[in-house]
Specification:
two-stranded antiparallel sheet; elongated; 407 residues
Length: 407
């Protein structure tokens, strides 16, 4: 009876591990990418979906930022220029990241297959809990960005509703007299609201997918760390067995260790793909953060009307938003690098003392590779970590200080 209970318990645990799928962490992202024309929807005519994607992205991804850019050139005052620049830079950066997702969409599919292989390697409750926590964190980061963009969109709508005169959700040029013609104004507002809603969804996915992939990558590194440390160790082994293993146990440990090396190679492959996917997006984010911070600083220091609370609020929101986006990606990039460095200690901590020479040879070669910490580079040059974020903030502070001196 006890043997049956134990067997049943083990089968339940195996079923739990078998059902693990870390690709679930990107479920919301894939839904948005399908809605916005990146990846075809299931059970839909490919040609019809292609037409849908082209029309949607011409109306939103192309024309919406174009109306903002043209408005910048029609700015009549320095304050208006600063307000328009802040919005335009942020929107153009978001569209560039969306275009980047389109070009790397096939790489995203490759990540799916690698994650499935790593998921099948989960062998303990500790690994399972680590990966489930990472899935929850990735989904939570998506929801946080979703709430932030929902708040920003709602705020823009409220601003238009409460305005005494006709105004737009965002300053933009349309080439029509929307201020005097009611139906023209309604058409412009409907278009802006539609484009803003689509762009908000794009931005949620654009800003949350880099940290989500880094969270899952770090979790699989942590799971491998747990798995490697267990090789050659057993709660039943005494000190004598740790120092002298039988040939059968040595062969078993060698097989387990070689499987861990395969997992490590898959993690390196996963890191390489993620590097290619988010490198340009991170570079665009850093450039956008620096430009928006400088523009907001100029706005505050020189041209903002102290009584214009609406302009002050919008400037603060954009400043906090771009700063938060840069911080989140730098934080998770830094955590991933730290977890990568922990793998060296994990391989060294396995039970290698009583292993066969082939085991030790493989261990030495693996240790040499693990000493090179995996780091995400923005534009293949700038490390995506917390020191980079500190440098970015120092740069913004230096610009503010310079502006104050010139005031």
């Amino acid at each position: 009876m006890m043997a049956n209970s134990i067997a049943k318990s083990n089968n339940n645990n195996d079923n739990i591990y078998f059902n693990l799928d870390t690709n679930v962490a990107f479920r919301y992202h894939w839904k948005i990418w399908r809605w916005t024309g990146i990846k075809p929807l299931k059970d839909i005519n490919p040609e019809l979906y292609k037409l849908y994607a082209i029309v949607l992205n011409i109306l939103v991804t192309l024309l919406f930022p174009l109306t903002l850019i043209i408005k910048v050139f029609f700015s009549q005052t320095l304050q208006e220029l600063c307000e328009n620049l802040t919005i335009t830079i942020s929107d153009c950066q978001s569209n560039l990241k969306f275009v980047n997702v389109y070009f790397v969409r096939h790489q995203l599919d490759r990540i799916k297959s690698i994650l499935r292989k790593l998921d099948r390697r989960v062998q303990s409750n500790e690994e399972f809990i680590v990966l489930k926590s990472a899935i929850s964190m990735a989904q939570s980061s998506f929801l946080i960005f979703f709430r932030l963009y929902s708040f920003g969109t709602t705020l823009s709508v409220v601003k238009v509703v409460l305005a005494e005169n006709r105004s737009l959700l965002f300053p933009a040029w349309f080439g029509v007299n929307w201020e005097e013609n009611l139906w023209t104004y309604v058409g412009v507002i409907v278009y802006q609201f539609f484009a803003l809603a689509v762009q908000a969804l794009q931005n949620v996915a654009n800003d949350s997918y880099p940290p989500a992939y880094l969270v899952i990558l770090s979790a699989h590194m942590r799971a491998l760390e747990i798995r490697v440390k267990a090789v050659g160790h057993s709660v039943e082994d005494d000190m004598q067995e740790v120092l002298t293993l039988s040939g059968e146990k040595q062969r078993k440990c060698l097989k387990e260790f070689n499987e861990c090396i395969k997992d490590y190679l898959n993690i390196l492959k996963l890191h390489s793909i993620i590097q290619r996917i988010i490198s340009k997006a991170c570079l665009a984010q850093f450039a956008c953060s620096a430009l928006v911070q400088c523009t907001v600083g100029l706005h505050f220091m020189y041209v903002m009307d102290a009584a214009n609370y609406e302009a002050q609020l919008m400037a603060i929101i954009f400043f906090v938003a771009v700063t938060l986006e840069a911080f989140v990606i730098c934080y998770f990039g830094h955590m991933m690098s730290l977890q990568s460095s922990n793998l060296t200690y994990a391989f060294y901590s396995c039970g290698w003392l009583a292993q066969a020479p082939e085991f030790k040879r493989n261990l030495i070669i693996t240790l040499m590779r693990t000493q090179r910490t995996s780091t995400i580079l923005a534009g293949s040059y700038i490390p995506v970590d917390l020191p980079t974020f500190v440098v970015l903030m120092k740069y913004a502070y230096s610009v503010f200080t310079l502006l104050i001196r010139f005031k």
